[in-house]
Write a structure and sequence with these properties.
single chain, mainly alpha
Length: 132
């Protein structure tokens, strides 16, 4: 190739360099998603925005730092459009959606409830309707 013969150590070097590149890329993606994971774990009302800002603002550094700080911001909110209970339920639903499926060892499959068809349901007789 370039005037010298490649042996097993040269190939081992390439494999090690490739593994190091994969590890570095994985660490970079993990670091980019850190503000979003922190916001989700703290039930932040703007967790999705923090997550997006963490990934998109990483190369410019300053937006990523802003997302990191924002993830730790106190989450006391007052929204006059909703009652506090409704707002808490809305935030909980968003956090569950962002967190993904539950992390349990055994998932039980949902069994649909048995329902009767309209024809099989008992309907009151016409004379019973007239009595009421």
């Amino acid at each position: 190739m370039l005037g010298f013969k490649m042996d097993g150590w040269d190939y081992a070097t390439f494999v090690v360099i490739l593994l190091l590149a994969i590890i570095a890329l994985s660490a970079l993606v993990w670091l980019m998603g850190l503000p979003g994971r922190i916001a989700i774990s703290r039930n932040h009302p703007d967790a999705e925005a923090v997550k997006i800002m963490g990934y998109s603002g990483f190369l410019a550094v300053v937006p990523w730092i802003n997302a990191f700080i924002w993830a730790f911001k106190p989450t006391d909110i007052i929204d006059i459009r909703h009652f506090p209970k409704e707002e808490a339920e809305h935030i909980k639903a968003n956090i569950e959606r962002l967190s993904g499926p539950p992390k349990t060892k055994h998932h039980k499959k949902h069994k649909p409830e048995k329902t009767q068809s309209i024809e099989a349901q008992e309907l009151p007789a016409d004379d019973e309707k007239a009595d009421s």
